[in-house]
Each structure stands twice: as C-alpha cells, then as structure tokens.
Amino acid sequence: MIVTTTRMTVSSGNKTELLQTISTLLPPLKEEKGCLSSHFYLDSSDTNSVLLVEEWEAEEDWEAHLRSKDCAVFLGAVRILCRPASVDFKILSYVAGIEAITAARSGITY
C-alpha cells in the first residue's frame, strides 16, 4: 500500500481557487485504478492549511497516477497557489489494527 500526504498552506486570496481545483480533481481521482481512498482536510486551527491524503493499492497504480494529466494539474496548482508546499510519499508494507497493538503489549510478535 502507498499512502501519500500533501500538506499545503495557501493565502486567503488563493484559497477559493485551490479548493475549487481540488474539488474538481477528487471525483476522477477516486475512480483511478488502484485508488483506495482520497481525503481532503481543512485545518480547524489554521484556515489557510489543508491536507490531501491518498491511499493506493500498489506502487504501479500510484506511479500511473503521477503520470496522469490530473496529477499534473494538481501539482501545477500547488506550485502556483501554495507557499510552501510539501509532498510526502510513504510506502507502507504492512498495516495493522488494534490487534497488533494488543499483541505488542503482550509480547507477541507478527
């Protein structure tokens, strides 16, 4: 599984344009092969900070997304409208739920 996070700080003057751009791009993104989820968050304590979190089934699906026209539009909007912008890519090989925490506390390893 691939999890990507994009943290953005946008000026008040550019916020509406960024929100409109991302709102337009989310529906087709969610239909892309391998996209497990895509969520867009507004920071409640800083109204100019936003976060986009995506989960991809496989690395090749994520790489295909990176080559897509919609991804190019998104990255262009981030470059123009946001200062500073940060894109973090994290590759997860294993995701565990509460049972892993319980097992770890009991000394059991997976």
Structural account:
This protein is α+β, with helices and mostly antiparallel strands and 110 residues long. It has one domain (2-106): 2-Layer Sandwich (Alpha-Beta Plaits), CATH 3.30.70.100. 45% of the residues lie in helices and 32% in strands. It is built from four helices and four strands; from the N terminus they run E-H-E-E-H-H-E-H. Strands 2-3-1-4 form a four-stranded antiparallel sheet. Strand 2 and strand 3 (49-56) form a beta hairpin.
Blueprint of the fold:
Blueprint: E1 2-10, H1 12-31, E2 35-42, E3 49-56, H2 59-66, H3 69-81, E4 82-91, H4 98-106
Antiparallel strand pairs: 1-3, 1-4, 2-3
Helix pairs in contact: 1-3
Number of helices: 4
Structural class: alpha+beta
Instruction: Kindly identify the CATH topology.
Output: Alpha-Beta Plaits
The secondary-structure element order is EHEEHHEH
List the domain count as a whole number.
1
Question: How much helix, percentage-wise, in residues?
Answer: 40-55%
The whole-number mean of residue pLDDT values reads: 85
**Poorly predicted tracts of residues:** none
Principal-axes geometry comes out as globular
